[in-house]
Amino acid sequence: MTLGVLALQGAFLEHEKMLTGLGADSFEIRQKGDLARPLDGLIIPGGESTVQGKLLRDLGMFLPLKEKIEAGLPVFGTCAGLLLLAKKIENDDRCHLAVMDIVAHRNAYGRQLGSFYTEAPFADLGKIPMTFIRAPYIGSVREGVEILASVEGKIVAARQKNLLVTAFHPELHTDGRVHRYFLDMIENSKRESGF
Ligand code: GLN
């Protein structure tokens, strides 16, 4: 399995290390041409959503990427990646790829003006380690979005078809279960589509 990791800005190296540890190949997506390489899934890392959004537009990658995602490319967005995928960002005038039916709140999660660590249940995986760094949270979701984790009453992980988002950074831990969950998502969608 080969994944692309968007490597314009932010914490992309940590995702690559995690994927290597799980036995998946990955390559960095830095320019439009990289999007033409065959890939089974994509990770959009944490960092600054405004910077990543601007670079995607400036480098002519915005529309080709949006089209791929709308055509079913599996995508895992962490933190800023969650903001890039959200159809609406409550406290920001602009949204970015706007493909997932969630309303995100930017830099708005209680204690997270700094960062904090906690452990909480995620889907059927049991408790997993979660590090939040100036994290967003998901204020509301529309039909079709499955809530995978909440912390202190706020939604911090969700899935909609080919899209997985977490407000926290699973790539900063040695626990690879959330990335494994994404790889399983990809395998299942391949099986369902008959490839
Ligand atoms: N606060 C960042 C943003 O708006 C997200 C932080 C992160 O990715 N760790 O984009």
Describe the structure.
The chain is built from five helices and twelve strands. The longest helix has 16 residues, at 177-192. The protein has a single domain (2-193), classed as 3-Layer(aba) Sandwich (Rossmann fold), CATH 3.40.50. The protein is globular, with a radius of gyration of 15 Å. With 195 residues, it is α/β, with parallel strands linked by helices. β10 (146-151) and β11 (154-160) form a beta hairpin. The strands form three sheets. A seven-stranded mixed β-sheet has the order 2-1-3-4-12-11-10. The protein has a three-stranded mixed β-sheet with strand order 5-6-9. The chain has a two-stranded antiparallel ribbon with strand order 7-8. Helices cover 26% and strands 33% of the residues. It starts with a strand and ends with a helix. Glutamine binds next to α4.
The main sheet orders its strands as 2-1-3-4-12-11-10
The top level CATH class name: Alpha Beta
Radius of gyration: 15 Å
Structural class computed from helices and strand pairing? alpha/beta
The percentage helix is 25-40%
- Number-wise, the strands total 12
Integer average pLDDT: 95
* Beta content: 25-35%
Main beta sheet strand tally, sense and closure: 7 strands, mixed
What is the correct CATH architecture?
A: 3-Layer(aba) Sandwich
Count of helix runs = 5
Distance between the termini: 12 Å
CATH superfamily: Class I glutamine amidotransferase (GATase) domain
List low-confidence stretches. Answer: none
Total domain count: 1
CATH fold call: Rossmann fold
Q: Which series of helices and strands comes N to C?
A: EHEEHHEHEEEEEEEEH
Attached small molecules: glutamine
